[in-house]
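Postdoc handover notes: sequence design on the structure in folder B. Input tokens:
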């Protein structure tokens, strides 16, 4: 009998707790009416993983890309349009490294070493996106959103103007890259600030490779187009 009374009592307490947690409206954190301000500021930091997408002139083995996680940080300027849309400028600095690995079939008829099959590409981008953020209605202390837009990036590590090419061990990329971006996230309204985790995909529009002087170069001769693509994981504080 005591067990039955205990179980019934536990179920009643659990039901009440569930109602409090999932159905009762919580007191919203105001954070000085941040969503009603025309202009707000903040900063972000996060992780990135860049990749390359290749298109080829001939059907040879794919060029492989060994990706690694990089780091980025930057500032946010947010302009309120209405309760559901914001225009955002998010300039930042992005650090990344990619290793490009060639198949031996690219060097048929030529003498090559293992070092010729690998090119390390270190990049430091000044990345400036202009984004439209479209949010849902705020639910208690969180608000999901999607975001998209276009961006331009300046590759500070570019050696576009270097007269040496891959025959001297120099893999060259263009300085400027243009992207379109799309992602999603959630605004979390904490007691003193708004914290926003988000994930975003970026896709280059222009060709970025600088071709070697030799049109039959094993490193660039078969590449019709090389474009950056990547994933950003951002943590924003406003």
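Designed sequence:
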């Amino acid at each position: 009998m005591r067990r039955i009374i205990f179980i019934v009592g536990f179920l009643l307490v659990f039901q009440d707790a569930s109602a409090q947690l999932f159905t009762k409206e919580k007191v919203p954190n105001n954070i000085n009416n941040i969503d009603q301000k025309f202009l707000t500021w903040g900063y972000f930091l996060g992780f990135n993983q860049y990749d390359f997408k290749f298109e080829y002139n001939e059907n040879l083995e794919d060029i492989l890309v060994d990706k690694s996680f990089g780091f980025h940080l930057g500032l946010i300027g947010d302009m309120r349009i209405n309760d559901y849309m914001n225009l955002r400028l998010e300039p930042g600095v992005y650090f990344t490294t990619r290793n490009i690995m060639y198949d031996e079939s690219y060097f048929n008829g030529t003498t090559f070493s293992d070092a010729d099959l690998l090119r390390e590409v270190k990049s430091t981008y000044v990345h400036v996106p202009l984004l439209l953020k479209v949010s849902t209605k705020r639910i208690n202390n969180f608000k999901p959103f999607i975001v998209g837009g276009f961006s331009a990036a300046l590759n500070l590590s570019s050696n576009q103007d270097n007269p040496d090419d891959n025959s001297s061990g120099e893999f060259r990329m263009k300085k400027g890259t243009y992207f379109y971006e799309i992602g999603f996230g959630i605004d979390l309204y904490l007691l003193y600030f708004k914290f926003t985790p988000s994930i975003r995909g970026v896709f280059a529009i222009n060709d970025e490779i600088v071709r070697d002087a030799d049109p039959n170069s094993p490193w660039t001769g078969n590449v019709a187009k090389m474009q950056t693509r990547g994933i950003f994981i951002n943590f924003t504080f406003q």
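Context for whoever picks this up: The chain has one helix and ten strands. Don't rerun without checking with the PI first.
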